Amino acid sequence: MSDFPACPECQSTFTYHDGNLLVCPECGHEWSEDEPIDTENTPQYRDSNGTPLEDGDTVTVIKDLKIKGSSSVVKVGTKVKNIHLVEGDHDIDCKIDGIGPMKLKSEFVKKA
Predict the structure, then answer these.
(1) Which of 21, 34, 41, 100 places its Cα 20 to 30 Å from the Cα of 81?
(2) Do 97 and 63 share a structural domain?
């Protein structure tokens, strides 16, 4: 693993030096090591109780969620492991056992 800081745009750890700049090969963002990282524009994801969420967390569903285009339901208390946070209305990408890949809203989960 490199000793370079993660990309401030996409949080990729595959950054490298190019001259006096750091470069992210995944999103193409370039920045200087001396440049302060803007944390104000970084989205903050919180669960239904206001607890901050991070990539890789385990969460629990707090209400029955109907699955669009299906008669299936994600039941209350379903644990979802290794979430991935994304921008958008449905801000959690995950895989639910027995159902498959799904997007959830952070307002319908709590950190486990």
Answers:
(1) 41
(2) yes
The CATH code of the domain that includes 98 is: 2.30.30.40
Q: In 10 A of CB 30, how many CB atoms?
A: 15
In a domain, 94, yes or no: yes
The answer to whether 83 touches 63, Cβ cutoff 8 Å, is no
Answering whether pTM is above 0.85, one says no
Taking only the tens place, the pLDDT of each residue in 11-48 is 888 888 888 888 888 888 888 877 665 556 667 899 99
Instruction: Kindly report the three-state secondary structure assignment for every residue of 27-86.
Output: CCCEECCCCCCCCCCCCCCECCCCCECCCCCCEEECCCEECCCCCCEECCCCEECCCEEC
User: Is the separation of the CB atoms in 80 and 108 below 8 Å?
Assistant: no
Residues forming beta bridges with residue 84, ordered by sequence position: 93
Q: What is the CATH number of the domain that holds 11?
A: 2.20.25.10
Instruction: Let me know whether 62 and 103 are in one domain.
Output: yes
